[in-house]
Write a structure and sequence with these properties.
By secondary structure, the protein is mainly alpha-helical. About 50% of the residues lie in helices and about 10% in strands. The chain has one domain. It has a two-stranded antiparallel sheet with strand order 1-2. A hairpin with a 6-residue loop joins strand 1 and strand 2. Helix 1 packs antiparallel against helix 2. The longest helix is centred in the middle third of the chain and has 22 residues.
Length: about 90
Amino acid sequence: MLGLFFGKEPWFRAKRFGYGAGLPFKWQGWVTLAVYLLAMTGLGLLADNDQAIPTIATVALMLIITSIFVVIVRNHTEGGWKWRGL
């Protein structure tokens, strides 16, 4: 099952205009996006819960998770990340 996540096939469409990735078009991309959104929501709720974890720790964890997400999306975008103009 994990082999499906370690392949090099694209999960995200390239943006039509601009730089970066668009929406996912494979289930692995949707799962990756959902896990990222759940992690950000969970950290936000923990930070809002009477300082369950310090704010600086929450921000640090959010930055780490976001950087991991960006690397995964970049590696699995069809055509790679490059500027696409008019």
